[in-house]
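Structure in, sequence out. Go:
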């Protein structure tokens, strides 16, 4: 019923849609954001543009619809530098920095726009052992049946072939289901901050 394949440029709209429809700790975030593209600009688009060799999708064979993805990059520090040069500048022109809006008063869109203007950097101590990172999202119709594991296995193998020694990922503190999934795959908790947990896996 599903085909796992490398992502293509023609999948970009689907990746943005899935990013939005799983953007509330795995639940549909469509009602939270006025701009349906804003989450994809941060969590999907740059990977398809700058790390296409580490982007894979799950496609429904019956409908041809993309139902899930895993997106990664082997070198987080280099990826962050690349985005600072080429990805963020045009988005910053498009979306004004909401820095003058108090944090507690920002809308969901403004919180994401703030990330575009002030993208967080992965901690150096994490990158020393876990230089790669990834994002994975599946729509409800594709969850279960080992499909998430298959996506992860495909990306992990691509990273191993590239000589990567470890990768990390972040997950919402409230998303206990995802945390259990990562632990089952062998990820270990590296650090915990308010609202987020960072996991790592040695390859």
């Amino acid at each position: 019923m599903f085909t796992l394949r490398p992502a293509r440029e023609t999948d970009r709209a689907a990746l943005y849609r899935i990013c939005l429809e799983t953007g509330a700790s795995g639940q549909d975030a469509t009602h939270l954001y006025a701009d349906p593209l804003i989450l994809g600009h941060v969590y999907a688009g740059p990977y398809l543009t700058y790390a296409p060799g580490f982007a894979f999708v799950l496609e429904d064979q019956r409908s041809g619809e993309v139902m899930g993805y895993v997106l990664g990059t082997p070198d987080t520090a280099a990826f962050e530098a690349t985005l600072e040069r080429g990805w963020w500048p045009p988005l910053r022109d498009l979306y004004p920095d909401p820095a003058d809006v108090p944090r507690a008063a920002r809308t969901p869109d403004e919180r994401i726009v703030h990330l575009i203007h002030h993208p967080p950097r992965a901690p150096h101590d994490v990158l020393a052992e876990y230089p790669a990172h990834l994002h994975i999202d599946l729509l409800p119709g594709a969850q279960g049946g080992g499909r998430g594991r298959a996506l992860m296995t495909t990306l992990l193998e691509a990273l191993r072939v590239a000589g990567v020694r470890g990768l990390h990922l972040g997950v919402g503190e409230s998303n206990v289901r995802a945390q259990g999934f990562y632990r089952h795959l062998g990820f270990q908790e590296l650090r915990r901050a308010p609202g987020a947990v960072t996991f790592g896996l040695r390859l």
